[in-house]
Structures are given as C-alpha cells and as structure tokens.
Write a structure and sequence with these properties.
Layout lengths: L2 H32 L24 H17 L5 E5 L3 H4 L8 E6 L2 H7 L8 E5 L12 E7 L7 H14 E10 L10 H9 L6 H12 L5 E3 H11 L3 H8 L3 H5 L10 E3 L3 H8 L3 E7 L11 E6 L1 H7 L1
Parallel strand pairs: 1-2, 1-4, 2-3, 4-5
Antiparallel strand pairs: 5-9, 6-7, 8-9
The protein binds S-adenosylmethionine.
C-alpha cells in the first residue's frame, strides 16, 4: 500500500474516532440536560466515562502510583490486597505487580455498571459501598489508592475517610492518592483567558481545572452547577471562546454537562490537605508527572503517622 493511502487510512481512522467521541459527548449532554438537578455521579461527565486528563490519570500517574505502592506489596508478606476508592478504569486496569489483588469500592451502582471491568491478569473484584464505611476487616489491606477521591468529598467527610483508611490498613502500609491541589495563591480569570488566547489548552479539560481552582470558594469548595453559571457569565460568546482557543464548539458545550449538578468538589491546598490528614496520617511523598498542570494533580503518599502507631501499640 502506498504511504499516501496509509496516511489517508490513518486520518480517516482519526476522523472516525473524533466523530465517535463527538457523538458520545452529544449523547452525554442529552442525558445531563434532560436529567433533574442531581448529585449523582452517573449524570456527570466524570461518571459518564468522558473524563480526560488531567481529570483522569494518565500513564505517567499510573507509574507514580505503582512506584509508591511496590515496596509495600513486597514487604507486607501475606497482605497483598489493594483497595481502590472508585472504579476509575485507568487505575483498575493498571499493570499491578504479581501477587497483588484489587478490590474497587464505589457507592454508585450505575457507575459500577458502566465503568467497572475486571482486570485481565490479577484477581480483582468490585463492591458497592461508601468509602467512609469500607466493607473490609481491620488491618486487612496493603494499600488504599484512589484518584481524586478526596476531592469528591466535603471537608467534613475527610476525617471520616482518613479514619476508615487507617482502620483497614495493615502495619507498614500506605494510602496513595492523586489529589487535585489548589495553589497557595489564587490565580485570576484574566490569566486563564490570556492562556486561552495563547492556545495553551489543547482542549477544555485543563481549562476547566484552572477555572475550578480559580472560581471556587475561599476554602476551595465548588458546586459544579455553579461553575456552569459562572462560566456562562464570563464567556457568554461560546463561538468566540472556541475560536480563540482553537477548539471545536463541542469542547465548550461540555460545560453543559454540569447543568444543575449539585456535586460538590473540594480543592484543598497541600498544607490544608496535610492538616486534614493529621493526626492519623503524615504526607511522606508528593510527586507529579510532566504534563501540563501536573503540579496541580500530584500523587501523594500518606503514611500512618507516629502518633497513630504509638496509639496502636
Ligand atoms: C472519585 S471520582 C472519579 C474521578 C476520577 N478522577 C476518574 O478518573 O474518573 C467519582 C467516583 O467517586 C464515587 N464516590 C464519590 N463519593 C463516594 C463515597 N463517599 N463513597 C464511595 N464512592 C464515592 C462516585 O460514585 C464516582 O464513581
């Protein structure tokens, strides 16, 4: 086959996958627009499987998680169970080391139905439960891991989650989470608009993360439905925004998936996060990838703090 024909076939395949993605965005928009105001993740872009990096982990994030995890799996002998907070496919399908067993925990039956797939090589299972009440015995897991899990909780629930994770972790085990961490100094919308004009955002996903961290309340709380209202006020001319950013209009219309959403996200700073983790956990390591905005989405290793170990003796 000539190089030209191969190139044609390649670009046809790319166009077809772009069309397929646009169709699924339109279908998701229809679900989101026709659904009543909801705090149901299965009505959100994330729940509908349309999340893209940096909202969902990329391969680099997966490697950071496995690096942090590996010593704890090999050192912990008989305990090899990893509990995952959520069913994020990029985590459930990771190249888990030999000997690992994975249990994913999510509170939404609809998300489990749409997102959960068993791992092809390591023993894996899913269970429907709240992370604040993990259906696991005390000291039974080698690691708990997740992606953006804390960010989906109200601050008032952070301690409940840390307490529950501390309960199920075996000695010498770890809690590894990629977290969306807002900068100590709040950015402003003008900076974001300037970056749009520089075409610094390949699509609207990283733009949306910057907006979230800029428009959230002073403590980092953000109700997704209000993001859409603020966005519409700031960027009333969607076609103009799309053209400035060099995106197809569907990229901008993705914001409609947050219509009426009551989902509340929290974006703590790193020091606020450390304060929430105390006294049960201390932050041992913070690492991030090399992609745009990776510094806002670090993989954080929490270890049971000295005080907890003393209490346990
Ligand atoms: C953690 S986020 C997933 C975002 C992730 N970054 C991704 O790549 O898709 C959303 C998931 O968390 C689940 N969830 C939120 N709060 C929960 C809770 N308290 N207990 C269990 N699952 C919860 C929702 O059902 C949803 O499936």
């Amino acid at each position: 086959m000539s190089t030209e024909r191969k190139a044609d076939r390649g670009s046809n395949a790319t166009n077809q996958s772009k069309h397929a993605e646009r169709r699924s965005i339109r279908a998701a928009l229809t679900v989101a627009t026709n659904s009543p105001a909801s705090n149901d993740w299965s009505k959100s872009a994330l729940g509908l499987g349309l999340a893209r990096p940096p909202w969902t982990p990329c391969a680099e994030d997966g490697d950071l998680l496995l690096d942090a995890l590996r010593p704890h799996l090999t050192d912990s002998g008989a305990v090899s169970l990893v509990a995952l907070l959520g069913v994020t496919p990029a985590l459930t399908q990771l190249g888990w080391p030999d000997g690992a067993r994975v249990l994913a925990v999510d509170a939404s039956p609809a998300i489990i139905r749409s997102q959960w797939r068993a791992h092809p090589t390591v023993p894996s299972a899913v269970t429907c439960a709240r992370w604040q009440a993990l259906p696991l015995p005390d000291k039974s897991v080698a690691a708990v891991a997740g992606d953006g899990s804390l960010n989906t909780l109200a601050y008032t629930a952070y301690q409940d989650l840390f307490r529950e994770v501390a309960r199920v972790l075996a000695p010498e085990s770890v809690f590894i989470l990629r977290c969306f961490v807002r900068p100590d100094t709040r950015g402003d919308v003008e900076d974001i608009t300037r970056d749009v004009a520089k075409q610094a955002f390949p699509n609207s996903a990283p733009f949306r993360l910057r907006l979230c961290m800029t428009l959230c309340e002073a403590d980092g709380t953000l109700v997704l439905g209000t993001l859409l209202e603020r966005f519409n006020g700031l960027f009333p001319d969607r076609a103009k925004l799309a053209s400035l950013a060099d995106w197809p209009i569907d990229e901008v219309d993705r914001f409609d998936m947050d219509r009426d959403s009551k989902i509340q996200l929290t974006f703590p700073t790193l020091s606020e996060l450390a304060a929430h983790a105390e006294p049960l956990f201390a932050i041992r390591e913070v690492r991030h990838g090399s992609y745009d905005l990776a510094e806002l989405c670090p993989t954080i290793t929490f270890v049971p703090s000295q005080s907890r170990q003393r209490l346990a003796r």
